[in-house]
Amino acid sequence: MRVTRPRGGINEWLHWLPVSLHKKLDYIIRQMCVYSHVWFLSREKKSISLSSNTFSSVGLSSVLEADVKQIVSMAHKTFEKDGPLLVIASGRDTISVSSSVRQLASDYVFVVQIQHPRTRLDRFDMVITPRHDYYPLTPEAQEQIPQFLRPWITPREPPGRNVVLTVGGLHQIDSAALRSAAKTWHDEFASLSRPLLVVNIGGPTSHCRYGADLARQLIVYLQNILLSCGTIRISFSRRTPEKVSKIILKEFGDHPKVYIWDGEEPNPHLGHLAWADAFVITADSISMLSEACSTGKPVYVIGSERCKWKFADFHNTLKERGLVRPFTGSEDLTESWSYPPLNDTADAACKIHQALAERGWTLRA
């Protein structure tokens, strides 16, 4: 099920509101718009047919909108036959829905919230969140936070028993997904010269700022290692600034060893993860780094020295575990290295099974 917010106009300024309150406010605004529009037209003695979709929100029509009453009713009706309902919610907009479901049907549901909800954790049966979300509690962070701001920074207390900490973000990449992707992308990747280096370029964030300077640094480093590479494949994300992509394209757009994905479907991301011999990833993207580190292959990071706050803490954790190394341009890619693949999603799933077992519940296959 999905949880969608109203879009367009003033709604873009209201995303800080709880989604349930935002929807109610949007309904009131839409009604006012409809009535004022009809009144205006009647004064002008004009007639017009208003489309029912004029003020509707855009969403995935094939996916049901999450409804608290419906989910609670389902949990009550199916409990005797099928047992409790496992509810897994992800993202800020789902918080009010998932916590309300648990409040109204605590004996019939087990609610898992993915990502720290920035609210009382006892409103959920389990919270799964990266350990760097707790960076504000470290001595280093406490020194950086002014005293008057500390009461407003979350989290305010260490994780309790119902909190599962991961290293990175959750995703769907595991050994089975990689084997499947290797078969799917065999024809495109099998004949490429090795080693194959995949370069994933994200975009600057408030905690990891960079621009054209990092692009130029990346170009110099890639030129230095071209001799030890068979093939380089470069991908940009939707957040990549145009000035960054243009610099990369100008330098490597016609290079025989370099392929730059043009953004057209199909997206080769899974093929890259399955077939790459090594990765270079900009430091801003926790998701791309988490996925790459699940392969057990060499992952090099560029720009981590520009990160601060919990992003810096995330990178320190990856380095301490031997999952990544800084990209310096002096690497010999014919010399490989490895580590136990990061397996956060499977580890979190095991924690859910354990928590359910403690209540005498099991998940059916």
Automatic annotation (TrEMBL):
One of its GO terms (biological process) is mitochondrial fission. It comes from the Eukaryota. GO terms for cellular component: mitochondrial outer membrane. SUPFAM superfamilies: UDP-Glycosyltransferase/glycogen phosphorylase. PANTHER family: MITOCHONDRIAL FISSION PROTEIN ELM1, OS02G0535700 PROTEIN. This is Mitochondrial fission protein ELM1. It comes from Chenopodium quinoa.
